[in-house]
Design goal:
7% strand; 3-stranded mixed sheet
Length: 460
């Protein structure tokens, strides 16, 4: 029997892509719309000023949109292959985004986690609520309350830019050691004893951000309280989130009529970073003109109305599960969490740090204003936890600029104190001067700073 060893030819099958073309076209168009959403979203947020931000959020997306639209004119096989690649990429990107979203902890949650550790270490009760929850509960019990708000929440437009808080109200600060700290604000919304504005003479004024404000420590341990032990007529005008422009504005709004002999400017390591944000505020920039005033001392009612309106709006949004849900959806669609992990330039309209020329001009204007009534300006340089090996929190460029800041202060013949050196001379571990790695100073640290200030000042 003869065996036929010839192999039968294998019939080739051809994959017909025609039925996939509509799907591929829709996916390419969808991808183009997603890329187009990036510059639209960026523009709505204010748009980045950095070269890297412009490249990432404007040039690259528009280039991608143009490329995808050109692909619609290519062969069916090319479009299908591109669509498959896009689908795979999108699936990978959004899977990673969802994983990072599940792992994400907002800054306040990180801080509350550290506060819980502090409370447990001292066998103290821990309050897990957010600041807005605390305010809500106080209001529900019939108590008027106001949360400490960041600087962007105080911007009121072109007509009014508050520099203090709401007057005569319980102000809830923060929780860095287990329980929330609060205080009753004075007649101008600052953290001072009642009726301090009625004193016949104010000898000392404190200017600064949250460290001067008294954030997160008991009232008997704040910087202002320790300074008042030897200088009773001390007015504290510190407000959390202030940068150098807001601090110059505060001097010019509130101090010329009081004419304090001593003005203490507390400079913190992230102030130059804050200054980059403040440069976008038209009203604050106008304070570089010595003649400009908002006359805030006579507009406290308007300040109160504006701040309370902002807080009520924020609390309404935060109490709405639907709005929070949509905010989360938009955040995921814009891959916020993945971008944060990859350190892609943020959308915030902040130029790169640091504008030392502007800072020098601000300090010169501040000194000239204070000396105009015979007063003396002093600068106290406050260190961040990062200087002692703490976790990264601020722009490294702002931290690295400290020698330049010191040089500017010295060139203007302004006496200063370097608190980093003070901490290092007091303890082998300066990190013990902080409540925890993401916190402000301890009450003991503020006492040491106040003592160093007293030694620097002329004795009267």
């Amino acid at each position: 029997m003869e065996i036929d060893n010839q192999q039968q030819p294998i019939e080739k099958t051809h994959f017909d892509v025609n039925h996939m073309i509509p799907w591929a076209n829709r996916l390419i168009i969808t991808a183009a719309l997603l890329f187009l959403a990036a510059p639209v979203y960026s523009f709505w947020r204010g748009g980045p000023e950095t070269l890297g931000g412009i490249l990432v959020y404007y040039l690259a997306p528009f280039g991608a949109v143009g490329t995808l639209l050109l692909l619609l004119r290519r062969t069916p096989h090319t479009r299908v292959n591109v669509a498959i690649a896009i689908a795979t990429t999108l699936a990978t990107v959004y899977l990673a985004e969802f994983v990072f979203y599940l792992e994400f902890r907002p800054d306040y949650r990180v801080q509350l986690g550290e506060a819980e550790k502090v409370a447990n270490a001292h066998s103290m009760p821990f309050d897990p609520r957010s600041r807005l929850d605390v305010v809500n509960d106080l209001r529900s019990s019939g108590r008027s309350a106001f949360p400490m708000m960041g600087p962007t929440s105080r911007i009121g437009g072109r007509d009014l830019r508050p520099l203090g808080g709401v007057a005569n109200i319980l102000t809830v600060l923060c929780n860095e050691s287990g329980q929330y700290i609060s205080y009753d604000s004075d007649e101008r919304g600052f953290n001072n004893p009642k009726e301090i504005w009625a004193l016949p003479e104010i000898t000392t004024a404190v200017i600064g951000d949250s460290y001067a404000h008294g954030v997160c420590v008991r009232e008997d341990s704040t910087l202002g309280t320790w300074i008042r032990e030897k200088r009773a007529a001390t007015l504290n005008l510190g407000i959390a989130g202030n940068g150098p422009l807001a601090e110059l504005a505060t001097i010019r709004e509130y101090l010329p009529t009081l004419r304090p002999q001593i003005v203490l400017w507390f400079y913190y390591d992230n102030d130059l970073q804050d200054l980059q944000r403040e440069r976008s505020e038209e009203i604050l920039l106008r304070y570089l003109d010595p003649r400009f005033r908002q006359e805030l001392g006579h507009r406290q009612d308007a300040v109160d109305r504006q701040l309370l309106r902002v807080v009520d709006s924020v609390m309404k949004i935060e109490s709405s599960a639907t709005r929070r849900g949509w905010r989360t959806v938009v955040s995921i669609l814009m891959v916020d969490h993945l971008r944060q992990r990859l350190r892609i330039p943020p959308l915030d309209p902040v130029a790169p740090c640091c504008d030392l020329d502007l800072f020098s001009r601000i300090m010169s204007e501040a000194k000239e204003t204070v000396t105009s009534w015979g007063g003396h300006l002093f600068v106290i340089l406050l260190p961040a936890h990062e200087r002692f090996g703490g976790p990264p929190w601020f722009d490294p460029a702002a931290l690295a600029a400290k020698p330049s800041v010191q040089a500017i202060v010295d060139s203007l013949d302004i006496a200063s104190v370097d608190v980093a050196t003070l901490f290092q001379s007091h303890t082998a571990d300066p990190r013990s001067m902080f409540i925890h790695p993401y916190s402000h100073y301890t009450g003991e640290a503020y006492r040491l700073i106040a003592e160093a200030v007293h030694q620097m000042l002329p004795h009267q």
